[in-house]
Here is the input.
Amino acid sequence: MISINSCKKPLSFSTENLSFSQDTVIFDTVFTTIGSVTKKFKIYNNSNKTVKIEGMELMGGASSSFRINIDGASGTQFAPVELEGKDSLFVFVEVTLDPNNAANPMVIEDRIRFRTNGKDQFVELVAWGQDAYFHYSYISQGIFDLNEGVWPNDKPHVIYGAAIVDSAKALIIPAGTEIYLHKNALLYVYKGSLDIQGTLGNEVTFQGDRLEAFYDDVAGQYYGIYFSKALPSSIDYAIIKNGTSGIHLYGEAPSNTSYTLQVSNTIIQNNASYGLFIFSGAKVKAENCIIAKNGIHSLLVLEGGDFNFNNCHLLGYGTGGNSAAAVGISNYYSNQQTQTTTIASINEGTITNSIIYGNVDHEIAIDTISDVAITLNFDFQYNLIKSETIFSSPIFNPTNNIWNSEPLFIDVNSYDFHYSSTSPMIDSAGPMSTPSDIEGNGRAIPDIGAYAY
Here is the structure.
């Protein structure tokens, strides 16, 4: 017996890690009152050998809205478990919250950590925090939230991952709709069309899904609205704030004969990178818009595309460390990975009756490459422009553009871009002005920008 015991070898554990029946557990719109729902997932050991789970932990601890039970034991931290080869464990998850509590974030999250062989693996826990319409796309699992028709506006819409308008489909978002987007989420229009129908005083709003006061002016909380080769679309009376790239357009549908997007009476502000980004041939017309205090550019045109901005505020004042000119325009794009440069035309590059201003010395930057097959057609008239260099190029009308005069806004820090009574923008616009401003006021003698004094 002594001989037999002395020859016994220690148990050899598998060096492989775990797999899970799902890597995200979502509790959806079943929550309309205080309640608790139970969901489950399985932990698998796909190895032939026993695997030692060194630790299991609910990361939010005792303060978490979630509760978990692993192999019959409840808690937040669990002792090591040996899971035999080809065996599995059940994990049960519950959540208790008041989804009608307006102080809750729109999306409540936690995660369970599993450690094997020194490696941490996580299962995400997600619960919708309020009664709302939820849009959820998870591409790696083949889940696509496809949208068309009219979104109801009787309660908020929350986008987690992406809400998609697919090819040849059309989505209408009526006045008063509130849209909240989770981290990195976007409204993605792919070869379809979007029609946002806000009205004065009943705008359509886009913002992050964190409702605490701290997040009121935090940029980069979600991505934005992305148009990819879209059919003709329109946005009227929207507020798009605190994203990464408020509106991003890539190309347009080959069948388009007019603008990819017409946007009017809209405020796009405090986005981490760009307010409005036109890339690779997209075409945009904008009137009575305020695009301000975005991290890099308020308007960026890259690798060509057409634009026509009239009676707009195109403002810098970005707080990010990468703040650049309010308006950046280029007809080419250099791909560092492929070491290639693509050049395209700008057939219509028009900015009229607008203010281009901010806190850097040059608030407009134009960088183009000429080619015999390329068209560059610019026209800048009746604008107030801040630029250390006063351009003599004929694209800037020498008689009606105002250079480097202080616009005398009421309060830049609080986003109040109305004018004081002595502002040089008053009565300085040209005949192409819109008949009324972003607030519905008539323009008897038109002023530069989105507001009439």
